[in-house]
């Protein structure tokens, strides 16, 4: 089982600022199988990014993903008020899925 | 438009079996492009993958739950189900069903709204 470690646990930023979220895997993963989700209270997770850097349908271009090997990053170029939420990375390998523990992006 | 809806008891007594069904509407479940999965989220915690089932009925489970979990699918009824045996309070969580895109990239593209299951005597 591949463990994903997200950092930081909490990111305190102001609207308009840039957010950089990290996801580190315990071993190398295929970039095709890394995704990012946004979760807001009382709502189901929402797919943001798949295959490391491809935005899902309807996701604004202020969201971008990058990385390879064991290190992956979700960047929100300029935080909009609706972007304050919890973000999870996810990987898939050998028919098994794992999620990171989440990064909370909160209003400073 | 694809829609997934979880259903089942909101309260289960330990050490009984938790049973949930996910009804899929708006698309067929028979495509090889998709698998169907369950994810849970204990109160105040992160997401935990429980297991998935593919279009031919092959199942894959989280090793931490493997001995207690079963997932089945009935494409003719457009639903799939989760059974989790011998539950304890630590199984209290919001349970989500989701569609998994499988192929050159794999990810959960559609989710149910989630259902809270509490385990308590």
Description of the structure:
The complex is a heterodimer of chains A (108) and B (121). Chain A is mainly beta and 108 residues long. Chain A is 0% helix and 53% strand. In chain A, strands 2, 4, 5, 6, 9, 10 and 11 form a seven-stranded mixed β-sheet that branches. Chain A is globular, with a radius of gyration of 13 Å. Chain B has 121 residues and is mostly beta strands. In chain B, the strands form two sheets. In chain B, strands 2, 4, 5, 6, 9, 10 and 11 form a seven-stranded mixed β-sheet that branches. A four-stranded antiparallel β-sheet of chain B has the order 1-3-8-7, with no helix packed on it. Chain A binds chain B through residues 1, 32-33, 35, 37, 39, 43-47, 50-51, 54, 56, 88, 90, 92, 95-102, and chain B through 37, 39, 46-49, 52, 60, 62-63, 96, 100-101, 104-109, 111-114.
Write a brief caption for the model.
The complex is a heterodimer of chains A (108) and B (121). Chain A is mostly beta strands and 108 residues long.
Helical residue percent band of chain B: under 10%
Task: Please tell me the overall pLDDT of chain A.
Answer: 97
Distance between the termini of chain B: 39 Å
Coarse structural class of chain A: mainly beta
Estimate the helix proportion of chain A, in percent: under 10%
Low-confidence stretches of chain A: none
């Amino acid at each position: 089982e591949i463990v994903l470690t997200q950092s930081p646990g909490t990111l305190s930023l102001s609207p308009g600022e840039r957010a950089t979220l990290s996801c580190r895997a315990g071993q190398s993963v295929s970039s095709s199988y890394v995704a990012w989700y946004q979760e807001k209270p009382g709502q189901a997770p929402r797919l943001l990014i798949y295959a490391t850097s491809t935005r899902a349908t309807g996701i604004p271009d202020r969201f971008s993903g990058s990385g390879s090997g064991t290190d992956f990053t979700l960047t929100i170029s300029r935080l909009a008020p609706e972007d304050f939420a919890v973000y999870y990375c996810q990987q898939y390998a050998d028919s098994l899925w794992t999620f990171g523990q989440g990064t909370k992006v909160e209003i400073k | 438009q694809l829609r997934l809806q979880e259903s089942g008891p909101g309260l289960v007594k330990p050490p009984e079996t938790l049973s949930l069904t996910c009804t899929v509407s708006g698309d067929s479940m028979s495509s090889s492009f998709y698998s169907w999965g369950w994810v849970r989220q204990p109160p105040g915690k992160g997401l935990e993958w429980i297991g998935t089932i593919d279009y031919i009925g092959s199942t894959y489970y989280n090793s931490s739950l493997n001995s207690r979990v079963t997932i089945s699918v009935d494409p003719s009824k457009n639903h799939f189900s989760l059974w989790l045996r011998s539950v304890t309070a630590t199984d209290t969580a919001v349970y989500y069903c989701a569609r998994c895109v499988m192929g050159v990239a794999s990810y959960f593209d559609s989710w149910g709204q989630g259902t809270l299951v509490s385990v308590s005597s």
